[in-house]
Amino acid sequence: MKTLISSDVRLLANLIQEGKVVIFPTETVYGIGASTKNEAACLRVYEIKGRPKDNPLIAHFPSIEAIEESCVLGNLGRKLLEKFSPGPLTLILPKKDKSLFPKELDTLAVRIPKNPVIREWIRLTGGPVSAPSANLSGRPSLTKLTDVVRYFEGKVDGILIEEEPSFGIESTVVSLVGEHPTLLRPGSIESEELKTLLPDLVVPNLFETLPVLSVSHVPLSPGTKYKHYAPSAQVILASRDEFIHSLEVGFDPKDTAWIGFSIADKLGKGNLFSETKEAVAKSKEGLSKFDHFSLVSTNEEYASKLYAFFEACDLSKIQTIICETPKLGRGWEGLRNRLEKASRRN
Ligand code: TXA
Ligand code: MG
Asked: Can you give the residue ranges of the YrdC-like domain (predicted)?
């Protein structure tokens, strides 16, 4: 199959209208999309990804008004979207238009991407566009065009070239159906921020890996029960001390990769080395033997680089990826959740 790779939003909107599948970037990760009004096209997305059929898709809308035509938004939903959208927030709402994919569900996951060009593209398709993250099921989501092309050229009808994802982890998912609003997937918009509008928000224990199981053991969000975000290499989540120790003992830099803060701290504050110029130069020299080392200074930077780093490690046949735990505070919640999932063995 020939894949049209282009920044022409009209051409790529036409493809969606014709029932084709198009990959597009959002501020979180790349999505692989089809018209929400076209069941056969949506089912092709499942086939291409190898995605389990019981895991529904997020419908991407151009505006709050468009969401309201398809779903019961309510006061709370409107306030949330007014505060956090366009942006990395997905709401689960009762569905008004029963013809939308997936037809068998009474609810729809909705979100408005941040980039105005992407919203214009969705508008041109006649919208909405249903899209899971563009990756093979179980693997990390993709955040780089080169990775998208490598995996999907020849498998999808189009790839829209626009600004690449910057947040790097998938949207925060909040369910507004059911008795209490519930956080189904943590992301860049954090539970503390959500609680300003949703004081009774139910937040699962974020130290434990989701799945979020309801009383009947049916997952609230089907996607939470599957293995996720995992590269082929084994991911190890390490405390700051373990991380530093692993640089010195036990791991061969030829087939091990590291992503974390600690060296930045060392160089910046000199708290482990003395602060003399010679000592700093020496520790930098020490780092040069690590071919696969990604240094980050904030949780946000960590999240934005993580998935592309996983991809690069797999390409280089790295066996083990050691990830320093994120810093407590801003950006911790979603990143910690993805790292825990990536480090799960099954
Ligand atoms: O940032 C993102 O959300 C990206 C970009 C492309 O928008 N998309 C994404 O989609 O991460 P996906 O399919 O990988 O994750 C969607 C999550 C899944 O966990 C799925 O189970 C849940 O949303 N979901 C979708 N529809 C649902 C529904 N009606 N009820 C409960 N959960 C739902
Ligand atoms: Mg996904």
From this structure: 6-189
